[in-house]
Write a structure and sequence with these properties.
This is LPS export ABC transporter periplasmic protein LptC. The chain crosses the membrane at residues 58-75. The protein is an alpha+beta fold and 252 residues long. Helices cover 31% and strands 37% of the residues.
């Protein structure tokens, strides 16, 4: 009787329980083999992360403000860009080719630290003598004492930059702010000493009258003029029209 019980087949519930236990064991083994333990972060890593978060809280708002500010000032930036384009356009008018420059300006100071300016429509500088500059249509503006000034123009000129000498020729015209005009074919100006000389016939007109002479020497700062004769002098009858700073005249 006992043997018959042992030989009976297993029921369906027993088979399912056995399979479930086997699968459960298999899954536990597989899960334990695939799971990796997470490492505990070190204290240095935690501090570094805190610093990153802290800096992010400051950097992001600053970056946002910078972007908003860029949008706000963009019209001004656009205006500056257009202005720079205009400056480049103006500079393009100045051409430098083979020692020739169109539109040149020279600035300097005399021995009394008073400024002078020389402008020219065209300058030519030779490579063998860099100190000598040839000028076309030169004009010299010279500041004198008591804020008075003198302007000298000519058709051509030579500017010795190191010596601060300006040699003018062809239709030289000297004008002083008190109304004095002097016309000659040549004139030499020592810009450092503020002296103008001309060893040629000159014609002068001004509040004092008219004067023709063979040569002249003019100290622009001391307001002293010397003329070489023979010449001709015509004075105005109205003495009140003569300025108190009328230049002295001598003839030989």
């Amino acid at each position: 009787m006992t043997d018959n019980k042992q030989d009976q087949p297993k029921t369906t519930s027993q088979i399912e329980r056995t399979d479930f236990q086997a699968k459960q064991k298999y899954l536990k083994q597989r899960a334990s083999s695939n799971i990796t333990r997470r490492q505990v972060p070190h204290e240095k890593d935690i501090l570094r992360r805190k610093k990153v978060i802290k800096w992010t809280k400051w950097v992001l708002p600053i970056l946002a403000l910078f972007l908003l500010g860029s949008i706000a000032i963009w019209p001004e930036i656009d205006r500056m860009i257009n202005t720079n384009k205009e400056v480049v356009k103006q500079l393009s008018r100045i051409k430098v080719e083979s020692g020739t420059m169109i539109g040149a300006t020279f600035h300097g100071l005399d021995s009394s630290e008073r400024p002078y300016t020389i402008t020219s429509s065209k300058v030519i500088q030779k490579s063998n003598n860099s100190d000598m500059i040839r000028l076309a249509d030169p004009k010299a503006d010279i500041l004198l004492q008591n804020n008075s000034w003198i302007m000298v123009t000519a058709n051509k000129g030579i500017y010795m930059q190191h010596l601060q000498n300006l040699n003018l020729y062809e239709n030289v015209v000297l004008y002083r702010d008190d109304g004095l005009f002097m016309y000659s074919d040549i004139a030499d100006i020592a810009l450092k000493d503020s002296i103008v000389t001309a060893n040629d016939w000159i014609h002068a007109e001004g509040p004092f009258g008219q004067l023709d002479a063979q040569a002249y020497f003019l100290d622009m700062h001391t307001n002293v003029a010397q003329f070489k004769g023979p010449g001709r002098l015509i004075l105005n009858d109205d003495k009140n029209s003569s300025p108190p700073s009328q230049p002295s005249k001598t003839s030989e």
